[in-house]
Amino acid sequence: MFGKRGNEGFGKSGSVAPPPAAPAPAVARSAAPEILAEPMRDPVTQRQQISSPPPLAPQSTARKRPARTELYYDTKSQVFSALIDTIDLSQLAKLDAESAREEIRDIVNDIITIKNFAMSISEQEELLEDICNDVLGYGPLEPLLARDDISDIMVNGAGQTFIEVAGKTIESDIRFRDNSQLLSICQRIVSQVGRRVDESSPICDARLPDGSRVNVIAPPLAIDGPALTIRKFKKDKLTLDQLVKFGAITPEGAVLLQIIGRVRCNIVISGGTGSGKTTLLNCLTNYIDREERVITCEDTAELQLQQPHVVRLETRPPNIEGEGEITMRDLVKNCLRMRPERIIVGEVRGPEVFDLLQAMNTGHDGSMGTIHANTPRECLSRMESMIAMGGYSLPAKTVREIISGSIDVIIQAARLRDGSRRITQITEVMGMEGDVIITQDLMRYEIDGEDANGRLIGKHMATGIMKPHFWDRARYYNEEKRLSAALDAMEKTKD
Prior knowledge:
Layout (H helix, E strand, L loop, with lengths): L11 H5 L6 H18 L2 H9 L6 H7 L1 H21 L2 H4 L4 H18 L6 H16 L5 H5 L3 E7 L4 E5 L2 E5 L6 H13 L11 E5 L5 E5 L9 E5 L8 H7 L4 H12 L4 E5 L5 H9 L8 E5 L11 E5 L13 H8 L6 E4 L6 H9 L7 E5 L3 H14 L6 H11 L2 E7 L5 E13 L2 E15 L5 E7 L8 H6 L3 H15 L1
Parallel strand pairs: 7-11, 7-12, 8-9, 8-10, 10-11
Antiparallel strand pairs: 1-2, 1-6, 2-3, 4-5, 5-6, 12-13, 13-14, 14-15
Helix pairs in contact: 2-7, 3-8, 5-7, 7-8, 12-19, 14-15, 16-17
C-alpha cells in the first residue's frame, strides 16, 4: 500500500538472495507477527520491559548496552534509511497512530528479512519500537517520557542524556543517531504549539501534549549540538494529601494551606528552580470554589486546574519578522478586562508583577503566582527589582506599600541537597513599619541532621502564632474554627 518501490528496492540483498534461503524468511514473516502482536498493542510497556533501566539499578543496564550499541545503531540506521526510501509518508500521515505503526512494522519486518540481519525476537522488537518512535513520536525520548518516575530529561547533544529520578541526576543510556535527528525531534515538539527552533530562532520554550515544559537551545548558541530540557509532570496530578505522604508538609500544615487557598488570600509561591513551585500551585488551586472564574497567564501553559470555569492564556514569541510578540504583561493587562475572580500567573519574572499587584489590590482577591527566590524576604526584594525593571519611577516606600498591601501569604518551597522537596516556610505579610515590610512566619522547616543513607532529617515547626493576620478573612468564609484547630494541632506537635 505504502511502498514507492517493491521489496526489491530495499537493497542488493533483496535482488540476489539465493533461492535456498527463501524458506527461512518465510518462517520469519509468519512467526514474527504472531509473537510480536501482543507487545505492539502496548508498545510503551513492551519497550520498558526490554530496554528501560530498572529504577533502583540504572547502572546495570548501562553496563550491558555498550557491548552491542555500535552494531545496533548501525543496523538501525540501515533499516531506517531503507524504510524512508520505501514508505510514502504522505499516505502514512492519513492513518491513525495504531494503523501507521502496523504498516511500519510490516515493512520493517520485510527489510530485516531481505537484508538478512541476524536478530533475536527481542532485538527485532526493540528495533521496531525505536523506528516507530522515530517516525511517529519523539524517537529515543519515548521510553523516558513513558516513565512516571522521571521528573527531568536533559539532552546535551546527540550522545549524552541525563535524567532526574527521585531527586538525583543520573546518566541514561539513551542516545540519538546524530544531532540532525535530535534537532528534528525538537522541531517536531515545538511545531505542535506553533513555535519554531532553527538557526535564526535558536531558543524556544514549548510544551508537550501532557503539559510537560520543554526548552530547546540549538546551534549556533549550543556548541555541542541541540540542548533539550524537559520538565515532566506526573500523569496523576499530585494533591496536598500526597505532599503530606511524601513529607513535604505536615497534615496540620496542609490544612493551613487549604484554608489559605479557600479564603482567597493573595498568594506568592517562592522557590528555586525545581523546588516544586508549579506542583504546589496546582495543589492549591484544588481548593478554589468551582463557581469562580479563574484566568491563568503563562509563558508556557502547564497549570492543570480542575475547575470548570478556567480561561487559559499563553504568551507568544515574535514571528520571523520580529513582530506579533505578546508578553506576559500584555496578558495580565488584558485579563483584567475579562471579568476574572482570580488571576493566576504561572511565573512572575518581569514588570508584569506590577500589574498583578494592582489586580490583587482592585478586587481580585485570591490571585496567585510563583517567583524564583530563596527566601520570603528575598521574594519581596525581587518584586521591588522587577517593578523597577518596568521603568516605574516610584519611591521605594510607595513600591513597598503596594507590595505589602497586595500580598497576604508567601509560601517558600525548597529542593534540599538530598533531592527531597519541602515547604520550608509559610510566611504572612503584615504590612509596613516605617520603610520596612513586616512579615511573620506561621511555620518553618528545621533540619536536624541526616541519616546513614544521606537523607536529611528535619521537622516542620509551628512558630506559636495563634491568630494570623488573615484571621478576619477566615472568619468571613466560616473557616476560623478549622484554622484555630490547625494552629492548635501545629503547636501541640511542636511540644
